[in-house]
Design goal:
By secondary structure, the chain is of the alpha/beta class. Helix content is 49%, strand content 14%. It starts with 8 loop residues before the first strand and ends in a 9-residue tail after the last strand.
């Protein structure tokens, strides 16, 4: 299937590893020019080199913290200057730590809001005007299946990612007439370093071994296995494509059937 994004320019945030890296590589493989950012310069440079070598596409990279609005604005301006246009933006960030309500401090809530919600706001504010000018665009947020079905131990993620979903749904209404779609993609249990860390935390708290934690998750999933970053990235690439021009305002779970809700 030709996704129709050859020559398009895509920003992918927090793309040095995990789901962000998989999405950036998939978009480049489909023919897009990719601009990636993350906090760690060395890891980011390695990822950019890997994507460039494996896909043959141009990759622009810049180290930054997605909670810094000025740095986000500077990055988006640099991308537009480099490529002359901006078509696709995939927002993403690391997840807040696992914790109970009782042990979560007020400042932890503020950090989670900055990390998950405000980073999305910053990218949306900077990229949507470019898309509106071109009468074409794709804004895609990487959230979590937790917005549909809360995950035990992820209090902050369960709470704040729901706000990201509400933001995206509202933006979908406001920008649909400009040829811009806005969608959320909600990964379930996907084998990344983030999931390894969560398993370690649960293991330490419960006394069970990490492999037992993973086995428990797999029993919850109708597919009886964890997802892969590549499977997740394929869904994001479709939503970024010309083929998905009439899909907007949705929250699509990529979770092997984990979420039991009807919608």
């Amino acid at each position: 299937m030709d996704l129709g994004i050859t020559g398009r320019v895509a920003i992918v945030a927090a793309a040095s590893k995990g789901l962000g890296r998989a999405v950036a590589e998939e978009l480049a493989r489909e023919g897009a020019h990719v601009a990636i950012c993350a906090r760690t310069p060395a890891t980011l440079a390695e990822t950019a080199a890997h994507i460039r070598k494996s896909t043959g596409r141009e990759v622009f990279h810049q180290a930054l913290d997605v909670t810094d609005s000025a740095r986000v604005a500077s990055f988006v301006s640099a991308v537009e200057a480099r490529f002359g246009r901006l078509d696709i933006c995939v927002t993403n960030s690391g997840g807040p730590p696992s914790n109970s309500f009782e042990s979560t401090k007020p400042e932890d809530w503020g950090s989670a809001v900055d990390q998950l919600l405000m980073s999305t706001v910053f990218f949306a504010r900077e990229t949507l005007p470019h898309m509106r000018k071109n009468k074409w665009g794709r804004l895609i947020t990487i959230t979590s299946s937790a917005v549909k079905q809360p995950v035990d131990g992820l209090l902050l993620s369960n709470s704040v990612r729901a706000a990201v979903t509400g933001l995206a749904r509202t933006l979908a209404n406001e920008y649909a007439a400009d040829g811009i779609t806005v969608n959320n993609v909600c990964p379930g249990y996907t084998r990344t370093a983030r999931l390894d860390g969560l398993a370690a935390t649960i293991s330490a708290r419960s006394g069970s071994r990490p492999e037992e934690v993973f086995a428990g998750w797999e029993r919850e999933i109708p597919a009886r296995r964890l997802g892969t970053p590549a499977e997740f990235a394929a869904v994001v690439a479709f939503l970024a494509s010309e083929r998905a021009s009439y899909v907007t305002g949705t929250s699509i779970a990529v979770d092997g059937g984990l979420v039991r809700s009807l919608l």
